[in-house]
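pinned: reference chain
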Amino acid sequence: MKKLLLAGVVATALATGVVADEGDLYTSDDNSGRKGFVIGLGAGFGNLSLENGVYGGYDTSLGDFDEFGFVTSFEIGYAFTNQFSINYINNVTWASGDSIYGFDTNIGGFSGISANYYINDAPETFYVVGGIGLTTFSNWDSGDGDTGTGILLGGGYAMEHIEFEADIMFGGIDSAFDDYSRDMVTFQVTASYLFY
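pinned: its structure tokens
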């Protein structure tokens, strides 16, 4: 888990381009078109990790889940300038794997409000993203699901209407059936097409 977290932090740092390109910036007459209403659809891959803790003095870590899977992403929002937007985002990781309960398909998601900051207003630029919202974890086979709160951090590279992004999401999941919380971490890499 620690290796996955470290890999996610390193990938996010590289994706955000700590040092931005010092090339020609667009002037206000050369609008890249990002400003205004935005809708984005994307897909990719990611890792879904759920860590159970100690409940009632019993170690529940045998129920941990840590698998790679398919990611879907959706965003809708408004770009106030070519460099700043506020969005509603919904990122979902669909992962299948063996657990103590057999072969499971689990779904981990993040729905919330995010802010994107683009390093410059050119059509091609690095950007960073941060969000806060609701995390969900559910089992496809049983239909059971739990929710909690979480944060999303990431960054990527925008090329006109296409964005490549790496995100890491941390969340606490509160069980609906018993009185304990679990930690969920997802790392996602997506390619999205933005309509604006």
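why pinned: The first strand starts at residue 36 and ends at 51. The chain is about 10% helix and 65% strand.
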